[in-house]
């Protein structure tokens, strides 16, 4: 009888501990969201109070089969969240955390120089829109998991599932205009995600079970879209830009020769669709086009005007310090033991060795424009890595129904609301190229007033 009583006590104690653990796990999350169409996906979310406590926030994770955990952080608009559009912001890399975009560019706050607090950002894009910052693919930023994504298409499907689950829960957001914005390798992410949204929006069988996402436009800043076109302009950017040459005459001549070989290798990659050929092209082009510039000029890849002994952007270290604070992680629902980094080299390498990083995202754009989804390509004129010369050439080379009209359209001065001549713009039937003066790779950081101006006008 004593043994039986003790056994019952141990069972009760075990059950109590399991229930307590479940309660503690659930207590961390305000809600867990599911979707019938995506049974292997779920969103866990909570309501943090960081960065800008005056607006509604949600943070948490999209979980996929319990093997992939994608972190997100949502901020409502400071203005009119019932009517202002929803923005999905994605940084590039691949493997760069979107918290860089949050704290360093368009978010409601920046991180102070001690890395222990935040500063209000008056030029945030949440002034007139609600924004989702998403760390993707897996193992980027606060995201983690055992399954590394190695291609853009797989990454895009996870993002689409996230949006469906999110909008199913928040119907008030689903009825609003939706835009996708980002920079650098987001020139791959964004059109792929937009393509999936547009495809399922027009799938009569799928849409019966899915939310119709009101995709209005995409915005790509200094994006990597088509290396075959863009890489041709590295020699001109290094040797003939409006900021003056940063390489000597003989180095410029060698860069031009190396560029021809780079383009030849990319063509071989595209024609053969052979991963080894694509890896060879990526390795060669990165070494000759970026490595030579960086070693010999000493200039920053993100800004041809800057020469820095260490980092040209010390604020990025402050962001990592702040993001690794235990109190910040707890508030956001992040495991305190997770070590946050802004960039994940293993993700970069995964995309490189799959051949995806040097691929072109050209094919997504014609159908987007055909379906009246506006496209804005904006570029700071001092960026070397994804420079405006290559992007300008790409916009003119893109084959779509408006190619002729776009190329014949006049380039006009871009005058901001404060009366400044801040750039040049060419536009035709929803396709726009905007060159921004005195800005590097990260336009909202370098020109916060001008970037907020074009963003507000665009949306």
UniProtKB/TrEMBL annotation:
GO terms, biological process: proteolysis
GO molecular function: serine-type carboxypeptidase activity
InterPro entries: AB_hydrolase_fold, Peptidase_S10
The organism's place on the tree of life at top rank: Eukaryota
Any single GO CC term annotated in Swiss-Prot or TrEMBL for this entry: fungal-type vacuole
E.C. number(s) listed in UniProt: 3.4.16.5
This protein's record includes keyword Glycoprotein: yes
EC supergroup of this enzyme: hydrolase
Alphabetically ordered keywords of this record: Carboxypeptidase, Glycoprotein, Hydrolase, Protease
Record-linked Pfam families: Peptidase_S10 (PF00450)
Family statement: Belongs to the peptidase S10 family.
Protein name: carboxypeptidase C
Organism listed in the record: Gigaspora rosea
